[in-house]
Amino acid sequence: PPRTKMRLTSLKGVFVGSGSEGLQQPEVVTEILSLAGTAPTELNVLYIGTPTYEKAQSRENQTKLLAAAGCSVTHLKTTLAGDCTAVEMEEACAAANIIVVSGGNTLYGIDRWRATGLDRQLKAAGERGALLCGGSAGAICWFDGGHSDSGDPDTYISSAAAPAPAGADEATTFAEGGVAAQWDYVRCPGLGFLPGLCCPHFDKTQSNGVLRAHDFDEMMLRHPGERGVCIDHFAALIVDGARYRVLSLPGKPGSVLGGAFSEARAGLPGVWVKEVAGGEVKTWLAPADGSLDELLREPTAVVEDRRLAAIRAANPSPKEL
């Protein structure tokens, strides 16, 4: 069932379609600092890198502009048993003005946070007004669930030792003419602070050779009780209490071309909305700004993806703090 007990009645957040690539855009960081409403030198940023298994390069990518602006950055490690204590977790969340969750393997992150109680600490931080941010997995995690690459073996902890190129995004990209990897996108559960099924990288094709936008239609048909919120790789959904607005990064490719979807990414980055009606997926472009209640809606039903058990078995997370 939907985790309605985790809903935040008033939330501030910046949810980007990509992780490292998104958080390295000056316009995204400007929006985060503006929404925080305090001088950067007075802001404490808490970085949570569980979805990337605490990779240093991902942390650098997703916090360096905030640090350069003068923010104090703290890293809370939760990937492995013994990484932190309950007291350290509570104190870190209580001191945070801004929380940044990395891109990476959403399912591993969500499972660890529920096992350790970090999910409740994150909710408490959001309730007192901490700004919730992140891209890719760091966007999905705040919603009821999302369209995830958590079944991609390249996102498993067994691959964590592989070096990440400086500045590179956590999400893979399909090489034109290459051989498609054998994995499927899955519906991954989130923390449930916001209703909806979030699809980041909406306009991208990952290493499995499947365009996210196409696959998400199929997912919506399997999960018709939910409304989908689709964020292009270089777009962001900015939530400020009862209102939202869309950030379309200038000079970047996107799917919005004359109000229609461009599979070739020949348009501008944007945010789309999807819903199933009469057995068909209806799609419309989210207005540039508006009421959050009109953009999102409570689900009529939430169905867990049956493939998650196999992914958890292949990429298990510790069950203890």
Strands ordered across the widest β-sheet: 3-2-4-5-1-10-11-16
Question: How many runs of DSSP E, i.e. beta strands?
Answer: 16
Radius of gyration: 18 Å
> What's the total helix number?
10
Percent helix among the residues? 25-40%
**Low-confidence sequence ranges:** none
Mean pLDDT: 96
Order of helices and strands: EHHEHEHEHHEHEEEHEEEEEEEEHH
Strand content: 15-25%
Structural class call reads: alpha/beta
Characterise this structure:
With 321 residues, the chain is α/β, with parallel strands linked by helices. It is built from 10 helices and 16 strands. It is globular. The protein starts with 11 loop residues before the first strand and ends in a 7-residue tail after the last helix. The model has no long low-confidence stretch (mean pLDDT 96). It has an 8-stranded mixed beta sheet, with helices on both faces. A 6-stranded mixed beta sheet has the order 7-6-8-9-14-15, sandwiched between helices. Strands 12-13 form a two-stranded antiparallel ribbon.
Would you kindly provide a brief summary of this structure?
26% of the residues lie in helices and 24% in strands. With 321 residues, it is an alpha/beta fold. The protein is globular and about 50 Å long.
Features of this protein?
eight-stranded mixed beta sheet, six-stranded mixed beta sheet, 16 strands, 321 residues, 26% helix, alpha/beta
Ordered list of secondary-structure elements with their pairings:
Layout: E1 12-16, H1 20-23, H2 26-36, E2 44-48, H3 56-68, E3 72-76, H4 86-95, E4 98-101, H5 106-116, H6 118-127, E5 131-135, H7 137-140, E6 143-148, E7 186-189, E8 194-199, H8 212-222, E9 228-231, E10 235-240, E11 243-248, E12 256-257, E13 260-261, E14 271-277, E15 280-285, E16 289-291, H9 292-295, H10 308-314
Parallel strand pairs: 1-5, 2-3, 2-4, 4-5, 6-8, 8-9
Antiparallel strand pairs: 1-10, 6-7, 9-14, 10-11, 11-16, 12-13, 14-15
